[in-house]
């Protein structure tokens, strides 16, 4: 029997990758409260969800163009562009648009619990797209976690006296599916292009569409928009849509996808934590309890994978 030798350099690289994954997760966790800051609420609207969607992607596209010029990245092949296009539809358009619409109607804390299922939806898309197999117990956990989310949405829906479903919950589910598709197709091409280049080519590829739409959707009452809304918009464009993916993909590369992906389990808790000072949404015991239960099912499903 032979044993593999692990050098201190490898250990340091894995540890750095783990903490880069934590950093990426923290960057993504701020997306929920930052998006709600940008869009406002139904009673106090700020930036239109469509403008936030295409504006953040356009901002990330311009930053990506500068980065790709500096590093002189080679142009992707036609096959790579097909995978990048799927990632573009999921991460640059589908997820931010559905999320922005949903956060007009529900709190960031509520959305944090619903989107806690993102690791599971990503696994489902991976099983379909990448033909990965999992034990039946894994899918039992997926159904259990989904049931917990449905129960939470039913109990917390404010539009029906506390009972019923919010239409925004369907938008959040759609956002998770879109993000999962983007993650999986982006992961397929990452070994060929590199961690940072994947998100840059995704954002740059969408720029011919997102930049004109952002210009066309520019708010007529821009001077009346609160500075906090503009700050939220700048964050989701420069960090959530761009810089956060640098840390995330590099963390997956250095630390190993299986281990580092578990750092995403921290996201609902971090989103609730950041929503408190940014939005004044103090997390309640029910939200915390359901978040813990959902994250437990996700963690167990990872162990059974």
UniProtKB/TrEMBL annotation:
<dbReference type="InterPro" id="IPR050638">
    <property type="entry name" value="AA-Vitamin_Transporters"/>
</dbReference>
<feature type="transmembrane region" description="Helical">
    <location>
        <begin position="285"/>
        <end position="301"/>
    </location>
</feature>
<keyword id="KW-0472">Membrane</keyword>
<keyword id="KW-1133">Transmembrane helix</keyword>
<feature type="transmembrane region" description="Helical">
    <location>
        <begin position="261"/>
        <end position="279"/>
    </location>
</feature>
<keyword id="KW-0812">Transmembrane</keyword>
<feature type="transmembrane region" description="Helical">
    <location>
        <begin position="83"/>
        <end position="103"/>
    </location>
</feature>
<comment type="similarity">
    <text>Belongs to the EamA transporter family.</text>
</comment>
<dbReference type="Pfam" id="PF00892">
    <property type="entry name" value="EamA"/>
</dbReference>
<feature type="transmembrane region" description="Helical">
    <location>
        <begin position="109"/>
        <end position="130"/>
    </location>
</feature>
<feature type="transmembrane region" description="Helical">
    <location>
        <begin position="230"/>
        <end position="249"/>
    </location>
</feature>
<feature type="domain" description="EamA">
    <location>
        <begin position="168"/>
        <end position="300"/>
    </location>
</feature>
<feature type="transmembrane region" description="Helical">
    <location>
        <begin position="47"/>
        <end position="71"/>
    </location>
</feature>
<feature type="transmembrane region" description="Helical">
    <location>
        <begin position="198"/>
        <end position="218"/>
    </location>
</feature>
<dbReference type="InterPro" id="IPR000620">
    <property type="entry name" value="EamA_dom"/>
</dbReference>
<feature type="transmembrane region" description="Helical">
    <location>
        <begin position="137"/>
        <end position="155"/>
    </location>
</feature>
<feature type="transmembrane region" description="Helical">
    <location>
        <begin position="167"/>
        <end position="186"/>
    </location>
</feature>
<protein>
    <submittedName>
        <fullName>DMT family transporter</fullName>
    </submittedName>
</protein>
<feature type="transmembrane region" description="Helical">
    <location>
        <begin position="15"/>
        <end position="35"/>
    </location>
</feature>
<feature type="domain" description="EamA">
    <location>
        <begin position="17"/>
        <end position="147"/>
    </location>
</feature>
<dbReference type="InterPro" id="IPR037185">
    <property type="entry name" value="EmrE-like"/>
</dbReference>
